[in-house]
């Protein structure tokens, strides 16, 4: 019996050592990349936004960006492709923030998509490739309304249509939900 217990414990220790060696190797690789200046920028996730389906286009409203006009327009970028968009803001109140929807509900025309910086928000216009109603913004998103979800209001990412007019949901009330 003792031999079985010791053999079992030895296998656990060996597995632990292999796991630690793998972690050490990964840590070493990360340190090398940092030393070479190849590290990737880390962004905080934007969770407060709303969206609405407006026929031939979808509008996304990124709210709660007090002082966004003070950020250089060179540091605000939104890239579009047929199935995604990625809004990045560098240096907003000392942080780099991002709203990335990697898989949109349907295809858009990237050349006709745009974004506009307002006094305390950013609006993104996604031009639909084909007309048709969008039931959500993208994978993991709720219905038209709040992309970020609302704490205490059911599942993350669930919208609140009708609460803010025209199926907009409740701008600025996003929470720690799926957001994007």
Description of the structure:
- One of its GO terms (molecular function) is ubiquitin protein ligase binding.
- One of its GO terms (cellular component) is nucleus.
- InterPro entries: Calcyclin-binding_UBL-bridge, CS_CacyBP, CS_dom, HSP20-like_chaperone.
- This protein is α+β, with helices and mostly antiparallel strands and 180 residues long.
- The chain is 19% helix and 26% strand.
- It folds into 2 domains: 1-40; 44-146, Immunoglobulin-like.
- It has 1 helix and 9 strands.
- The strands form 2 sheets. Strands 7-8-3-2-9 form a 5-stranded antiparallel beta sheet, with no helix packed on it.
- A hairpin with a 3-residue loop joins β2 (49-53) and β3.
- The protein is elongated.
- The chain starts with a helix and ends in a 34-residue tail after the last strand.
